[in-house]
Design brief:
The chain is 35% helix and 27% strand. It is an alpha/beta fold. It has an eight-stranded parallel beta barrel with strand order 1-4-5-6-7-10-11-12, surrounded by seven helices. Helix 1 runs parallel beside helix 3. The longest helix is centred in the middle third of the chain and has 11 residues.
Length: 260
């Protein structure tokens, strides 16, 4: 079994890292460059940087912030938000990102997934899927534009399609669980993991150590992403890794270069 990954997420709005609940009610969590550098030093496997207001505001990702963050980070670094064209992908990769994440643009122009994979390799293309449970049904719909616009797309069907188009990974966020700290939505995570053969990152809802374990075992995720627990120092990356190792879950050793 491949080692599971622990990934802090930096949601950036107006130049600051923020964390909300169900994509609203944001509170400030700090400077993105400083936080990314801290996670790099503390043994995180990767860092994800999402410019969460770019699509809503109709602008591109903040490239200068990407450059400054990339200078401080030596682990794999994913950037998303406001990416609409192959040229946008090229600019972000040039700025220092290892991978790019697309959500709204992928739904609007699915061919962008294939074009990105062809030009930069599937390993560079992460498709973010924001999922919301359809009331009264055992299915989930895809939501775009930072959680503000619902679509008619079924999450499982869309996940299978993005894999066929060449995506190398899926970043799956449950809007229902996001920021609640009640645990990841393991139902949708397991369903998507069963529907595709590419890695699935579980996102939304982490509140304690057991939630990370459950997302990896019950949700069958390949990686777990968290934000507020790490940002507000309620848990550290090393604590999560030590706990998961105690549960006999394969985890990459977290080598902290400084004390957290």
């Amino acid at each position: 079994m491949l080692a599971k990954r622990i990934i802090p997420c930096l949601d950036v709005k107006d130049g600051r890292v923020v964390k909300g609940t169900k994509f609203v009610e944001f509170r400030d969590a700090g400077d993105p460059v400083e936080l990314a550098a801290m996670y790099d030093r503390s043994g995180a496997d990767e860092v994800v940087f999402l410019d969460i207001s770019a699509s809503q505001e109709g602008r591109g990702t903040l490239l200068d912030m990407v450059r400054r963050t990339a200078e401080e980070v030596f682990i794999p670094f994913t950037v998303g938000g406001g990416i609409r064209t192959v040229e946008d992908i090229r600019e972000i990769v040039k700025a220092g990102a290892d991978k790019i994440s697309i959500n709204t643009a992928a739904v609007q122009r699915p061919e962008l997934i294939a074009q990105g994979a062809e030009n930069f390799g599937s390993q560079c293309i992460v498709v973010a899927i924001d999922a919301r449970k359809v009331p009264g049904q055992q299915r989930w719909q895809v939501v775009t534009h930072g959680g503000s616009q619902a679509t008619d797309l079924d999450v499982l069907e869309w996940a299978a399609q993005v894999e066929k188009l060449g995506a190398g990974e899926i970043l799956l966020t449950s809007m229902d669980a996001d920021g609640t700290r009640d645990g990841y939505d393991n139902s949708v995570t397991a369903a998507v993991s069963d529907a595709v053969n590419i890695p699935v990152i579980a996102s939304g809802g982490a509140g304690n150590l057991e939630h990370f374990r459950d997302a990896l075992i019950i949700g069958k995720a390949d990686a777990v992403l968290a934000a507020s627990l790490f940002h507000f120092k309620e848990l550290s990356v090393s604590q999560v890794k030590e706990y998961l190792l105690s549960c006999n879950i394969p985890i990459r050793p977290g080598i902290a270069r400084e004390v957290e």
